[in-house]
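Aim 2 progress update. The chain analyzed this quarter is reproduced below.
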Amino acid sequence: MVVIYNNSTDILQKNNYPFSIFCFLFIIGAFCYWFSLPPFGFWFLVFLVPVFWTFVIEHPQPIRFRTIYFGAFLFWIASIWWIACPHPLTILGLLALAVYLSFYWVLFFSVSRIAVCRFRIPVVWAVPVCWVGCEYLRNHILGGFSFCSLEHALYRQPLLIQIADIGGGYLVGGMIMFIGSAVGSAIGSLLNRRISAYRCCEYFFAGIIFVTVLGYGFIQTAKSHTSKSNLTLAALQGNIPVRLNDNFEQTEKTLKQFIDLTNQTVQNTQTEQKPLDLIIWPETVCPIPFLEYNTDLKPAAFEDWTEEAVEYWNNQFKQLQIFVKQIRVPVLVGLSTLVFEEPPTPKRLNSALLIDPKNDQTDFRYDKTQLVMFGEYIPFSKYLPNNFFLKTLCQEAGRGTEPVAIPLGGNRLFLSVNICFESTIPHFVRNQILTLKKQGKEPAILINMSNDGWFRFSQQIDQHLATHIFRAVENRRPYITATNGGFSAIINSYGIIQNIGQRREAESVIGSVLVMDYETPLYHHIGDIPAIICMTCLLILIPLGWYKNQFPKQNSAQFLRNG
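Predicted structure tokens:
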């Protein structure tokens, strides 16, 4: 009879260690998670997270899930405290989000323990499947929230994240969990002084996976050194903090900064005799709205609007067009679009608008479709009184309808734009590309326009940069981000940062990107199907675990044998 599976925590059971030991191991794992993420960036610690958590998951005795929940709550408070920066009342949003996100850790540990302790599924398979399933739910429920994903610890390690073009960031997170749980299981087996043939196969397979990931990374990143660049872009970076209800002087100051940066950029490139194909402004830094009239009603039918006000803003916008004609470089501007359709107020859209010096057309405009809860919309706002405190703080925005292919260089290539936190949703950016491809306008470059000035140069800007890098690798497209209050950067299609601004500095980040017919990554073909399978397994295990709990548990020392 050959033993092919054994519980690596048997030695811990025999010594009757109290559960406080396992609570300590859980806390150590959570600290490794926290320190591996930006801004600390001790990325190698991310592989220790599943090492410590494996002991907690394999421990067969009942555990206190309130301990797991409380630890997760502290982790999220420490990781996303920047949500409280825009206004004192947003502390309530921070607490609510931390309360919500902490449930995913409890779900992960509970279902992983069901798989390992009840159904005897090897921990190296149960842990990554349950983790990816929880992450898929987190990225979809309530619009999705992917900040501080496990794989983001590796955003500065291009060799280890190239597999994201196969299964997205989920595959990178699953790889970390698989390798780490294999190491944790190996340590348990060594402590138990009983290593089975089955365990040896697990460790060997984990080593093969790690070597394969590195090899694939070497192959892919080597291509970046042979690429030739032939399109020059400038992503402007501002350093102006944003406050709710900024006054007129503050908005004028912001506009002046980006006008000056644009002039300086054009002068520098002309002096160096470098052609400049596009200048990108961050999100909503232009206080001049673009007015769109879809009604025969006069402006007086809308609150706070007159014929004179409409004429004033139209003139201001014309002055902006004249400025672009003077510099003779197309500018992608982040501004608000006011759509006059139905009284009492025009609908506001968060937009990216291309202003071309060669014509006065304003046909190429992308309107943000994934809005930020309590930042750009309030759930059930139509049922709330107009003087409700959240409605007075939040300048609600309308929702765009579809992605837009923005042409550049005489329609020889197209850009796809996402705005602010849209970059944090992996399936959103992928779906944008596939939608435009069906229209015969496949984008060659991805552009993000953000305004992170709300978050006071905190770790949020590092975390946001990590999401940009993963979107570049997943979709194999150059990714340009223009940000106020954060990092503006030019990232190649292998997730390598070619040019980046300095923290807290106002500057122009200029760089070149390759324009070519890109290979279609496998992620575009299979999408999130592997993650959906993991999520399905997760949801199936929950009722099965409850059902099996109605009957006596298997003896925790029982072995699966092959004879």
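The chain is about 45% helix and 15% strand. The two ends are 5 Å apart (CA to CA). These observations will guide the mutagenesis experiments scheduled for the next reporting period.
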